[in-house]
Design a protein that fits this description.
Blueprint (H helix, E strand, L loop, with lengths): L3 H17 L49 H4 L11 H26 L11 H5 L10 H7 L1
Pfam families: NDUF_B8 (PF05821)
Length: 144
């Protein structure tokens, strides 16, 4: 925990200059790769109203400046998610968790125990009678 004098010092030296310079906004430099082409906002055309355009299919007027990422922002671009991606991931994980919990519950409590006894063979599971393992040492050495 910081002492009161240290907090006052930090408030005077660190926080105060940031507040004093808060009026200055950074000037956005033009993108040199566009070579003077207008920088339009990165907003999909799907957010535009459906009516009131000369080309209603693409939701634009004839002669409008085309965005430099038109293939992404046009009506033919990727659809805008209906819900935010973090909420979609949360809902997906909840659904997967419900399915796994339901399957585990069914496997644990609703599947009956096997009514038969597993078969047991004499002579070490018939290993000696069928010639495996210690009964046939040549077979083990030829496998390697």
């Amino acid at each position: 925990m910081l002492s009161a004098s240290v907090r006052r010092h930090l408030a005077r030296r660190v926080l105060r200059p940031a507040l004093v310079r808060g009026y200055a906004t950074p000037v956005k430099e033009p993108n040199p790769t566009l070579n003077g082409y207008p920088e339009l906002p990165d907003v999909s055309h799907q957010y535009r109203p459906a009516l009131g355009w000369q080309d209603q299919l693409l939701r634009r007027n004839f002669g409008d400046t085309v965005h430099h990422h038109e293939e992404v922002h046009s009506m033919w671009g990727p659809d805008i998610p209906v819900i935010p991606p973090n909420q979609a991931l949360r809902q997906f994980l909840i659904a997967v968790g419900c399915f796994l919990t339901g399957g585990l519950f069914i496997k644990t409590f609703l599947v009956p125990e096997s009514p038969v006894i597993p078969r047991e063979y004499p002579f070490n599971g018939l290993e000696d009678q069928l010639g495996g393992g210690k009964a046939n040492p040549e077979a083990e050495s030829s496998d390697e």
